[in-house]
Design brief:
- By secondary structure, the chain is of the alpha/beta class.
- It has one domain.
- 30% of the residues lie in helices and 37% in strands.
- The protein contains four helices and eight strands, in the order αβββαβαβββαβ.
- It has a six-stranded mixed β-sheet with strand order 1-7-6-5-3-4, with helices on both faces. Strands 2-8 form a two-stranded parallel sheet.
- The protein is globular and about 60 Å long.
């Protein structure tokens, strides 16, 4: 009976335990640059998390991270796009043209560490760029127009964090918790370094 109780306590601890805190590895920014944000496109490349190793948990992690970043943007209008390896069209370019954001926050995995075939940790890179979208005359076809997109890098940071797929018990709630934790860590860091400011409050 004693062993059974200990086992039950151990299982409960695994189920309710939070993920380890994500860690900032390195970052850089354009000197003196503060992005004056009118609207923001958050583009999450979840290609690595669409791998069969993740099963359906990969999409849960990606969605939780992206939605957390979107919800932490405050008064800034945000569009969120998530992509995976199976998509044939450039959804990010389509979103840039349709929403005409003043900034893009791109997120993609630099590496994924696995043990015994299970991904346990991912290194994410976050890039923020100022973006300008305008319509210009098509040089090769007078009378027609094309969209010109120009960008300038503002900030980059790399973070390492757990996938919550390494434990004995993997649950949807735990994986989503890890995704939210990564999103919150990124949002907190952006506030700390003051890399983005809503355009309405910039003087």
């Amino acid at each position: 009976m004693k062993h059974a109780k200990l086992f039950a306590v151990s299982v409960a601890a695994i189920l309710i335990a939070g993920c380890a805190q994500p860690e900032i590895l390195q970052e850089s920014r354009a000197p003196g640059e503060v992005a004056k944000v009118r609207s923001l496109l958050i583009a999450v490349d979840g290609s690595a998390f669409s791998n069969a190793q993740f099963g359906h948990y990969g999409r849960l992690y990606i969605n939780a991270m992206g939605e957390t970043l979107r919800d932490s943007a405050g008064s800034i209008p945000v569009s969120l796009v998530t992509t995976d390896a199976m998509q044939l069209q450039d959804e990010i370019a389509k979103a840039v043209i349709s929403t005409k954001p003043s900034q893009i926050m791109r997120l993609h995995t630099v590496s994924v560490t696995s043990t015994r075939g299970r991904p346990i940790e991912a290194v994410w890179q976050v890039d923020i760029t100022n973006v300008s979208v305008r319509t210009i005359d098509a040089a090769s076809d007078p009378g027609k127009f094309q969209t010109q997109i120009t960008s300038r890098a503002v900030y980059r940071v790399q973070l390492s964090g757990p996938t919550c797929l390494a434990g004995l018990i993997t649950t949807e709630a735990r994986v989503e918790s890890c995704g939210r934790e990564m999103g919150n860590t990124i949002a907190s860091r952006l506030r700390t370094v003051h890399v983005m400011t809503p355009e309405s409050v910039v003087r």
